[in-house]
């Protein structure tokens, strides 16, 4: 009897130690986690694109040179991989395919330019989690830099540039002369171990960097720019992907700077692949017709365990938004956002639950999204119009929404407008709306995601293990 009590006591002790350990490794080790991956950059073999006949004059089309170089480098995939070096110059190309164990390396003044001819961007199948192209039914143009079923891929360089020359696409979009959905600048599909670092991305035709059905993706120290009025030029869109780390980025585009997605209505629900374990930190950005960090509007496969911190958004339309609708299904849960600085932002926090774009008429209007356990903490802002536009869905209240230490200088007469939401708050100025009035402390800190209950939070176990596995 005494003996078995002893054992169970030791077991509890051990579990506690393990739990504390996994939390500590996150906060301490997570900063080295992104760097560790970069040591894999050394490749034993290297070729320059010029060895395959490429001409960096900005007019010669180099698609064949990229394809031939990568075909050649495939023979080194099982020998530690290889590097394709792109020297200074302006390298015009159509869409090309990457391979596993490849580093695409852009020298300091190297510019990869996307062709202005839509035929150079072949049409591929729609994503199964969208059921159709995002803009038009049927297929979609393939991204300029594309990869599928890959492992260990690095796209990096000394601040070289990948320029999609998107203006031709934006014009086709505006004049409604597109035949298929516009292409991304970079898309990696069903791939693992992806690093994108130390580069500048300009003028994407559509979303800029799109990891979809991927695991272990790092986007670090990149600049992403597109005109503030360019249509749908999102910065980075992790889509049905897990273990994604985005850090030290500057993004200024025509739409959402980062949008976390997971498929669209009935197609996303049946595909059922969530986005989870997403870390975003040290992001600076600016938008006119989008947001700093968005979740959705396509979130039908679910989005969870998102940690975003040290964010600075200026002269922007919206800082943080969750976009959803009836028919979307899925869930958004366990979201923790902290240390946000805003300067000149129209809406600081927005839950838009009426984002009614559906792939077709087959969606189920009774598929309601579950939105819960959203913590937003340590926010300061100057010259903000509206603090919070927090709208749940009638009959589908968004719950455990927690706001702490939010201090905004707001110009609107009614800074908060809330409906169908439930939650708690502490130290919020201007004074928050009625449904969030109840204090977080002392009774409700464990109802708020990632506040005082690290040891019990469901995300902790996952997070500890994926970071340790790096
Ligand atoms: C592509 O189109 C853009 C905008 O019309 C133009 O500035 C650029 O020179 C064109 N590039 C090529 C290589 O044709
Ligand atoms: C994903 O890639 C792996 C190989 O890396 C392959 O075995 C698998 O079939 C692919 N799945 C899809 C849906 O493309
Ligand atoms: C990726 O894997 C899927 C599923 O196995 C396969 O159908 C597809 O052809 C593969 N694509 C490439 C580019 O390897
Ligand atoms: C970011 O990239 C630039 C070159 O593009 C490099 O000089 C700088 O050291 C990088 N910073 C980090 C933190 O990696
Ligand atoms: C990289 O280049 C972009 C565009 O030219 C520039 O805005 C950015 O400051 C550069 N980044 C670094 C780290 O040098
Ligand atoms: C759409 O198709 C028409 C007819 O084939 C073609 O003339 C046009 O160039 C295509 N548009 C784009 C943007 O590719
Ligand atoms: C990016 O630049 C930094 C600083 O020069 C370097 O430490 C890091 O390894 C680079 N990243 C990649 C993937 O080369
Ligand atoms: C802003 O984006 C929305 C949705 O993409 C679009 O309908 C609208 O036309 C855009 N507005 C401007 C001013 O670009
Ligand atoms: C908060 O974020 C800012 C950048 O926006 C950074 O300078 C500051 O050090 C961060 N504060 C903490 C406590 O991490
Ligand atoms: C409140 O948030 C601001 C901005 O992130 C931060 O500087 C400050 O230390 C926080 N205050 C407390 C009591 O945590
Ligand atoms: C908000 O305005 C007050 C009074 O105008 C000013 O003292 C304070 O510094 C401002 N706060 C911020 C965060 O800008
Ligand atoms: C809240 O928003 C609704 C419409 O979304 C509007 O009718 C109402 O006037 C707003 N309330 C306040 C206090 O701003």
UniProtKB/TrEMBL annotation:
Gene3D superfamilies: Single-stranded right-handed beta-helix, Pectin lyase-like. The lineage of its organism: Eukaryota, Viridiplantae, Streptophyta, Embryophyta, Tracheophyta. It comes from Hibiscus sabdariffa. It holds the Pfam family Glyco_hydro_28. This is Polygalacturonase. Residues 1-27 form the signal peptide. Keywords: Glycosidase, Hydrolase, Signal. SUPFAM superfamilies: Pectin lyase-like (SSF51126). Belongs to the glycosyl hydrolase 28 family. The keyword Nucleus does not apply.
